[in-house]
Write a structure and sequence with these properties.
elongated, 71 residues, single chain
């Protein structure tokens, strides 16, 4: 994928996530992380909003994993 393809894919995912419920956010998190990993591998500059989005999605996924853990 070219840098422009990666930006386009990231923006498409960002649009899907806008106002999405937690279930959708959790489902799309791996895709967002994968696109950003590919961007990093190609040394493409990642906009800060996409880095923040990825961090928030990873945090949501981590919290969801521990929601059902007994205390």
């Amino acid at each position: 994928m070219t840098a422009q393809d990666l930006y386009t894919e990231a923006e498409r995912l960002e649009e899907k996530l806008h106002g999405a419920c937690l279930e959708t956010r959790l489902a799309l998190q791996p895709s967002v992380s994968l696109v950003l990993d590919k961007m990093r591998a190609q040394r493409v500059q990642i906009p800060s909003r996409l880095r923040r989005l990825d961090a928030a999605l990873c945090e949501d996924a981590l919290e969801a994993r521990f929601d059902n853990m007994p205390v």
